[in-house]
Amino acid sequence: MQYDKADKKQQNSTRNIRLGILVTILLLMTSLGAMHQLIGAGSVPSVDALCPFGGIEAFYTLVSSGVMLKRIAFSSFILFIATLIAALLFKRAFCGQICPLGTLQELMGMLGSRILKQKQQVPLSADKGARYIKYLVLLLVIVFSAITGELVLRPYDPWVAWQHLTSTDLLNSFAWGLGILAATLLGSVFVSRVFCRYLCPMGGFLALVYPLGRFGIVRKEKTCIKCKICNRECPMGIDIMSVERVKSPECIGCNTCINVCPVKDTMVIEEPGGKSVSSRTFMAAVLAIFLLTIGITTATGQFEWKSASLQQEISKSGNFDSSQIKGRMTIQEVADATGIPAEAFKAEFKIEDKDLTTPMKDLQPLYGFEAEEVRVFVDKYLSEHAEK
């Protein structure tokens, strides 16, 4: 059969550019996570300030009560807005073009391809049902975050665990997340993007928004040679060959199918009106949405590149609330902000003078108490002394 061949060199180059961007984002985020743990919380933002899913978890509480969930930062809402803008234009593009946890899985999948030569196929009956789990996870996280006022996913989140690999409380506070991370990485060796397929609540949310997106994958039936390379290479296991327009919310916008198709202009990115964009334009536009959003909000001082001190937290809200006390803060910082004598903390938690300037999360392995216990003590102390 005669057909116009796709520019294989350009396709390979586009795939390499995308992988380079993904790895750069992964390395940047991993470096920030390590710096937050090793250099100091006041100098580098935490993982909670740099994750768009936090905006989803905290949205109901913020709208209904005007209160931010514990640990959450306004920058999470900014990243969530950028993710939503990208979704309304390019569907689940965040998953395929930005997400660092997705990149980790993809890298493990590449390793698996080299070792196994061929990916394992999950039985269709099991695969189809298991894909609904991420929607259940999304629902449970939103409901329980609203009820408890906490980021309930945090201890179980594999990305949070990854960002705490250099933390002293990794095994204490993130043991579940570490286990899920290990299972995700190992599972991705055998099944492409296993966490994205079955468990990711962010993927579940974006899948719900998917129908609202403008640009999607279209297969031109007239020029398709039915080689099925697109099906074989799709990391989400979508049966692209059975449709002309990919409407599956499982599509993550990685555009792998476009960049492996051997026939020119057979797999394209197109909006319902017929306007198309190249995979490189798609990639550049998604990246630009995030860079512009972060750049503008950084310039206006809304994006948080430093964790706020307790005094700054109090200044922002106009009043003190013990929920503003976080594990990255020191006992001395809490004492100065609340007016409670440092000696009272020393007596309560059996710590020494040198421990007053150590972040509470680093004291936990030594003394066994966590920030929540400090919050309870502060509330009790202030209540008792207010009555006198």
Overview of the molecule:
The protein is mostly helical. 57% of the residues lie in helices and 3% in strands. The chain contains 19 helices and three strands. It has a three-stranded antiparallel sheet with strand order 1-2-3. Helix 3 packs antiparallel against helix 14. The radius of gyration is 24 Å and the shape is elongated. It starts with 7 loop residues before the first helix and ends with a helix. The model has no long low-confidence stretch (mean pLDDT 90).
Show the helix and strand layout.
Layout: H1 8-38, H2 53-65, H3 74-90, H4 93-97, H5 100-116, H6 124-130, H7 133-148, H8 158-163, H9 170-173, H10 175-190, H11 194-198, H12 201-209, E1 216-219, H13 229-233, E2 267-270, E3 276-277, H14 279-299, H15 310-317, H16 331-338, H17 342-349, H18 360-367, H19 371-386
Antiparallel strand pairs: 1-2, 2-3
Helix pairs in contact: 1-5, 2-3, 2-7, 3-14, 5-10, 7-12
Q: What structural class do helix, strand and pairing data support?
A: mainly alpha
Give the distance, in angstroms, between the N- and C-terminal Cα atoms.
92 Å
Question: DSSP helix count?
Answer: 19
Please tell me how large the radius of gyration is.
24 Å
Helix and strand element order:
HHHHHHHHHHHHEHEEHHHHHH
Shape: elongated
**Fraction of residues in helices?**
55-70%
